[in-house]
Amino acid sequence: MALDQKGGVWKSGRGKGRRTPKGRQLVDAAWAEVCALIGDGPHPRDMLIEYLHLVQDRFGHLSAAHLRALAEEMRLSQAEVYEVATFYAHFDVVKEKETPPPALTIRVCDSLSCELAGAQALKQALTDGLDPAQVRVLRAPCMGRCDTAPAVHVGHHSVDHATLDKVIAAIASGHTHADMPAYQGLDAYRADGGYTKLAELRDHGDWDAVQDSIASSGLRGLGGAGFPSGRKWSFVRSEPAPRLMAVNGDEGEPGTFKDRKYLEDAPHVFLEGMLIAAAAVDAAQIYIYMRDEYPAAIQILRQEIAALEAAGLVPSGYIVLRRGAGAYICGEESAMIESIEGKRGIPRHRPPYVAQSGIFGRPTLVHNIETLVWVARICREGPQILSDVVKNGRKGLRNYSVSGRVARPGVYLLPAGSTILDVIGAAGGMAPGHSFKAYQPGGPSSGLLPASVNDVPLDFDTLADYGTFIGSAAVVVLGHTDSARGAAQNMLDFFASESCGQCTPCRVGCEKAAALMTAPKWDADLLTELCQVMTDASICGLGQAAPNPIKSVLNHFKDEV
Fold first, then answer.
1. Side by side, which strands form the sheet with 410-415?
2. Average pLDDT for residues 504-529, to the nearest whole number?
3. What pTM was estimated for this model as a whole?
4. Among 35, 137, 54, which residue's Cα sits nearest to residue 323?
């Protein structure tokens, strides 16, 4: 029997079949708005976060319709766009029938320095005193303004030494944009001899000699890891071209603000050091990754990069500025590179290392801002500016970001052999009414040391016997009225909220540790076991270092727990 002779019910082509693709439909108006923002194509994958910023800045949130339109225009799946948008704290995703956030967002920093300065009480006062339909009040991790704690962002405007009255006044005046500091621009820097060394090295530089000079100075990476800078150059130079360079400006370690000071004062010292390092490894392009909490620094860099292009010092597009979106984990170099590529900032497994396979799989030199400032100074003034400074058997200079219970919080350039008493002395001594109890030597990752450990140089490798490290030299000083236990709780709450979630030991470990620390009496055995698991099994430095506050309190402040 032929197929067309079989019985049964046959339907015509006209019926109730699907006329649109499955899932969320493209809205023409939202599509037009997105296209107007991002311009004509092509739209490469690595621009996703930049485009999300454009939409967020224009509309105050990311609607489902706009995410759908962005996925359409970039030829990405909606899931891919959504997972990136929801990873970063500064993006507000609003689905259908959900209420968008108010037009104005206030962020109150709750890092240790700001908490010591009364941030929690200020946040509660703002929450109670402002109309939630008009203003949204959120807690925020460190904003890099620990020297002016408590710090508050009203939109993109930084309110230093914030009070309820100051914040209300900023709202009333519509002061929601970043204030631009007075800084040394390109003309002033060149009049002072800036970029002459770069021109000299580009024309007839001996890059082996430059690398040797950097190595002999003793310069090490100043973002926290402390890897010798000269060796890093040699690793990248040995890899095949094209090579790239990434600048880590995601200065997110609570208590750290030295990079911001450089950028808001003399950005071209950093930029010349960056261009020298890029030339040394023959980098085809440079990516600067700046944290979103530094809006003034971002604007300064935009202006000065344009000035460099106009002056013919760099070709157009050679320096690419990328804006973070509120993720501490992007301070880890491989997570930063993922973010530069427009993805979630999740650390990569190593090997391969970024010197071998970094941005877009190309060999990549990664430096932080302060390191590149010293590159410029060493090339201009000679390696002796670091190597000839000796104190307590240590060579070199360190910028210490100092905050907490000191008289004059700020950034202090001191010999690398300085002790905590030297650092406190540079900051004007203890604040009135406070006596020295404890200190955080290098951000929350370093935990706490008691005041009795006061004769150890705060430098690389000198604190290992105490189970800690100098890191980014983010020094927070505690007074006799402060709780070491409470400080550790603040640090673990930070790590729990900032874990990227990729690995279970960190994601679950930070959350469980923070919960265990709220008990009236700590279960020392259980916390110690949990700390060991996190240290041994976490993928990156966040989970590996997060237990340090717990271990330091158990070692040095047993009477509090």
1. 410-415, 397-404, 474-479, 436-440, 449-450
2. 97
3. 0.94
4. 54
